[in-house]
Here is the input.
Amino acid sequence: MKRTIDSIAALPQVAQDLLETFADERFFAFFGKMGVGKTTLIKEICHQLGVEDNVCSPTFAIINSYSTATGEPVYHFDFYRLKDLDEAYDIGYEEYFYSGNWVFTEWTEKVEELLPNHYVRVEIEENNTIRILTANVIND
Here is the structure.
């Protein structure tokens, strides 16, 4: 899947497209530079899943937990401040990553070697005033 995002108004459609294209998937790993819109897109995806909690980047907590409209858990990770992989082990990342529940990760490059063998890789690149989103299922 490849999409061009030229405004914030396009995010609801992009989020819907991601959820429909990857309807059977629950693990989405986001990659992109700071400020490219990873958290903003995850907020919109959560909104479409019916999350009523305040969705925000868990930069300091590393993980935030939400619930969908149907009560399904949603785990939102931000690994930006992770000092080393031991911290991921300390928070018990395996319980979340392999839970079968919704998982969205930011700054995934810091824990890439810990990712499950099967996930959706979402890359967002900036090109002047537009964003280019590419998403593919990784199945190693």
